[in-house]
Specification:
Blueprint lengths: L3 H17 L19 H6 L7 E8 L2 E5 L2 H9 L1 H4 L8 H5 L7 E8 L2 E5 L2 H7 L3 H11 L8
Length: 149
């Protein structure tokens, strides 16, 4: 047990630091990478998710963001709020329901110039039934929904 205490302390430190960023970005338990390492600019420029590279990174809201090209990195740095996913990359539908779930960068929508991630294909199918209504509910819940975690 004594050997585990330092590991537990380190894990708590990382968890505390991850929650300290305002607003927080979903990065996963053992990661500090936003949007699962996908290039968030590619959704807007190519109309599809593209894996980012460790060669092109930026720090924003306490997370590391990866990009597929120097051009996309420059676009992000010019206007990170435009390209960062809504609700810190948490599942937009879950936020609309009052709780947090991971956003999966493979299930996405751009609505009114904003990137939204969903948990899974089935959740995205539900989201697409009324995206404006769900966005309205999620906006009402954000960022207070973070306090429930």
């Amino acid at each position: 047990m004594n050997r585990l205490l330092p590991l537990i302390a380190i894990a708590l430190l990382f968890a505390t630091n991850a929650m300290a960023s305002e607003p927080p970005v979903y990065t996963g338990l053992l990661s500090n990478t936003g949007a699962g390492g996908y290039d968030t600019v590619s959704y807007f420029e190519k109309g599809e998710p593209t894996k980012g590279s460790g060669d092109y990174t930026a720090e924003y809201l306490g997370a590391t963001w990866r990009f597929a090209s120097a051009e996309n990195l420059a676009r992000f740095k010019t206007d990170p709020e435009r390209y960062a996913p809504a609700y810190g990359g948490y599942c937009a539908w879950a936020v609309s329901q009052g709780y947090l779930a991971k956003g999966d960068p493979r299930y996405w929508t751009i609505r009114d110039g904003r990137l939204y991630l969903n948990y899974s294909q089935s959740v995205q199918d539900t989201w697409l039934e009324d995206p404006d209504g769900f966005i309205s509910k999620a906006d009402e819940n954000w960022p207070e929904v973070l306090e429930q975690e």
